[in-house]
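User: Hello, can you help with two protein structures?

Assistant: Certainly.
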Amino acid sequence: MGASYPKRFKLSFTNWDYLITGVAVVFFPLAIVLAAIRVLVTHRHNSCKGRNNRLFGWVLIITYGVIEFLMIIATIEDGDVEGLYSASFVFGIIILIPAIIMLLIARKEDKKFSGLLQFYINAITQKGLLRIDYIAQEARLTEEHAIRDITFMFEKRILPNGRIEDGMVIIPSMSRRTESPNQGEFVSRRGQQVQYSLGTESTLRDLADSAPKSVECPGCGARTVVAQVEGKECEYCGTVIVA
């Protein structure tokens, strides 16, 4: 049984993110610059994309609130209520609409990463995909993205303790001594029970040889990962591929 992972993953704000939103209240132009730097530095990580869009969205919302407050103070002095309404409408289009769009994108990115987490769990613990290049090919990502994602899962203990070495996912056996060394179950930090069939580190490299292989379709030439004990229909031309 695979992990029943939450539909939407949400990476929490760090102290740095809260600092940026706080700066937006005092001096919003600087906050926008800091948020942009934050995005440029971390946006290559799939896990950070939702949080980055959410951060920028909130910075823009706070910016609109500060501008609106300043305009209200100015209106009290000159009494130009119509000017306030017009300016609020214009700034709403310029600032609020992009902020809402970014928050919606953040939700979409979080949900997308949740799907990736579920894929990695199933691919590694259920299908026995241990080679990074095969995992990346199945996920339709670059190997660099797959490495960053799986490393993130190790750090957050979404997967059992392990590492990536020589292009392979290495996860030592987590079974108890009274259980089979090749089978067991662990509970992730999020409380999800995940069954695994891994074996000791010495056997993981042997399992890689019998794990699903990347095979070229004889019909159209497209490459796909196929388990050695079963065939798989090519998603492009329909030809049945056997490893």
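That covers the first. Now for the second protein you mentioned:
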Amino acid sequence: MASLTGISVGFLGLGDVGRPVLRRLKACGANVHATSRSPALRYKMARDAVNLYKAPSEVNDQVKDGIIFLMLSKQGLIDAFLNGPDGLLSNLASSALIVDLGQTSLDATQKYAKIVEASGAHWMDAPAIGSEQDAMEGRLSIRVGGRKEDFDRARPLLEAIGRDIKHMGEIGSGQAAVPTT
């Protein structure tokens, strides 16, 4: 695994695949800042010495202009983490990059990209396909949609969690390249 020492990363979505992805980033040296609305998950992740916060805005405070990964299974969860007084959009740095690792509809992906870009930050769709075991072993397949410079910026982090990584083109092309579940 390549070293990610000194890189601050935000992470939202501590489900079955999200937790091992977060652990891999941390094992590579990234300074990971996460949040979960579930007290039980916060407890589990605290045992892994992950920096945990109660609200997405607190993750922004730590990551500032870094990269924030979303690994959420439902559009309603993305809405909840982005919006509201303590959501990501409340204090998102203008040079931050949000990378959606979940399988999100094309319409929602384009909507979120416009909202984030209106704040001066950037959005990249990068659905990560694979099992919990694939995540633990860093062999997820990832198809990326977004600006080439954002892809280049996120690539070292993506390489820590995946083996089959391809930049497909503009926003939404990552989502369009994976089969719907």
